[in-house]
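Good day; I would like, with your permission, to put a structural problem before you. A protein sequence and the structure tokens that stand for its backbone fold form the material at issue. I would ask you to consider whether the tokens describe a fold that such a sequence might reasonably adopt. I set the record out below, with my sincere thanks for your time.
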Amino acid sequence: MGVAIDRRGALLVADDVGNKIWRVVPAQTQSAL
């Protein structure tokens, strides 16, 4: 397991057992116009 922050500020989580890389970003909200 490893973690890092990419250039855009997202959290990257590497799961070496499951052979996956997860990119975690905040949920986007829409504003009313």
